[in-house]
């Protein structure tokens, strides 16, 4: 009986010893596994992540490091940051398509002296675009540049009148012919100076403003009637040789809105048209 009891106790002791050894071994293995996982995670964090991102003009290579790794902090870069650079070259941008209107001493209603310029609102339009630009981009948020382009204003007249050529001041003659189309136009070389701000995370929201000047290129009047068919007359028609004003633009990516207002009179050496000025507004494409 004693022999059997001793043998049982010895067997239980051996089992306990083995279990204790296994437990300690498991603890050691667990520590090793945890250490290995931490090592893997640390190594992964220390790996550089390389991506490509657009800065609006160029593709920029981005290298991001573990922010906790003090040794590599200096290598991280802001992927939206752009270096200052000169802007110079041929372009096709800021294409304006909108309505033009006449302001008579601050009023949208024409005075009796200027009633002959009554026009069809939805057919009196402004068209323009830039073909050259020169300036400086200070950073990804702001640039300043001068550009040059062309600007047309087409006034669709309601009255059947013919403007006299080579006369000062501006004068006209009533016509016996009814014109289905009577368009009075001017074209200018436009030269704006633009202050442009780029906002938002991707700099897609843009606001621009500044002064604008223009030199007269030509004036014209185009007729269409059953009696005469189509004909066109060219003259400067006392349009201002130089005009100056201000503009504003707001847009998202490549499309937006614009407004332009000129401070000087539309016509020069024409006292009856003193205070008559040009304003336009509408859609803009290719900011």
Automatic annotation (TrEMBL):
Keyword annotations of the record: Signal
Domain Outer membrane protein beta-barrel span(s) in chain numbering: 124-264
Lineage top rank: taxon: Bacteria
Pfam family membership, one: OMP_b-brl_2
UniProt signal peptide: 1-20
Name listed for the protein in its UniProt record: Outer membrane protein beta-barrel domain-containing protein
């Amino acid at each position: 009986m004693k022999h059997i009891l001793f043998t049982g106790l010895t067997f239980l002791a051996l089992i306990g010893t083995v279990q204790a050894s296994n437990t300690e071994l498991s603890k050691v293995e667990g520590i090793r596994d945890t250490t290995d996982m931490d090592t893997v995670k640390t190594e992964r964090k220390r790996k550089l992540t390389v991506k490509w991102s657009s800065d609006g003009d160029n593709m920029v290579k981005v290298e991001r490091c573990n922010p906790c790794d003090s040794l590599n902090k200096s290598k991280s870069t802001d992927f939206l940051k752009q270096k200052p650079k000169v802007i110079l070259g041929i372009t096709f941008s800021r294409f304006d398509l909108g309505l033009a209107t006449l302001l008579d001493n601050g009023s949208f209603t024409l005075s009796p002296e200027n009633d002959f310029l009554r026009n069809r609102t939805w057919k009196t339009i402004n068209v323009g675009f830039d073909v050259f630009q020169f300036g400086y981009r200070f950073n990804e948020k702001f640039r300043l540049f001068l550009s040059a382009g062309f600007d047309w204003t087409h006034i669709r007249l309601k009255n059947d009148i013919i403007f006299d050529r080579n006369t000062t001041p501006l004068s006209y003659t009533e016509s016996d012919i009814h014109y289905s189309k009577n368009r009075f136009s001017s074209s200018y070389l436009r030269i704006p100076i633009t202050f442009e701000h780029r906002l938002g995370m991707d700099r897609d929201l843009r606001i621009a403003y500044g002064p604008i000047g223009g030199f007269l290129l030509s004036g014209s009047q185009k007729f269409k009637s059953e009696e005469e068919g189509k004909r066109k007359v060219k003259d400067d028609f006392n349009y201002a040789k130089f005009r100056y004003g201000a503009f504003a633009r707001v847009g998202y990516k490549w499309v937006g809105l614009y407004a332009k207002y000129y401070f000087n009179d539309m016509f020069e050496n024409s006292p009856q048209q003193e205070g008559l000025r040009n304003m336009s507004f509408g859609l803009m494409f290719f900011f």
